[in-house]
Design a protein that fits this description.
40% helix, alpha/beta, 213 residues, 7-stranded mixed β-sheet, Rossmann fold, globular, 7 strands
Amino acid sequence: MSTEDKATETAKRRWNRTAGFYDYMMAFMERVRLRKYRRLLWSRVESSRVLEIGVGTGQNFPYYPADAEITAVDFSEKMLERAKNRASRQEVEVDLRQMDVQNLEFEDNTFDTVAATLVFCSVPDPVRGIREVERVCKPGGKVILLENDFSSIPILGWFVKLANPLAVRMIGADFNRHPVDNVPKSGLAVERVTNLGRGLWKLIEARKKTPSS
């Protein structure tokens, strides 16, 4: 097994372990911030065929556009089990699949929009993952990412840097990444970055270049 595969398997084990208490862990933040940000992200979705990366336990289900055909993936089977249960309870129509964003099993140029919420802090190679997102998005299609960025507040950034090794080991999330810098490395063209919560979250809107661009 390669070093990259080992890192992915380790991350998957951590998220399988976290799945059972993830919703409880996020409950306060969902109430005070994230529900609003999730709604904003999904209001920016374009066209009808949509891919959600890192569906987790299905926290985004209430915000799915009613007229969209949505496929949602996650590499953690335990998180996906919870998403399937939630989809059944809430009667959400979504095609749920276990899949790693670093190796998406879709053809090139498949989706009109690709969306992800707080995902790329947990992907072992985020640039590789975003390149896969770029590959499966149609030319001219949209990519929308909501990501953490604690560097905007230096004191908080210092504390997060100090605590980050424990966060990575316990829940598999690396909060020291700079998502705005990673998106252009994939070949996507960043159109807009919206600072949310004093810049602690970034809503990144990008587009796949067309052959003529």
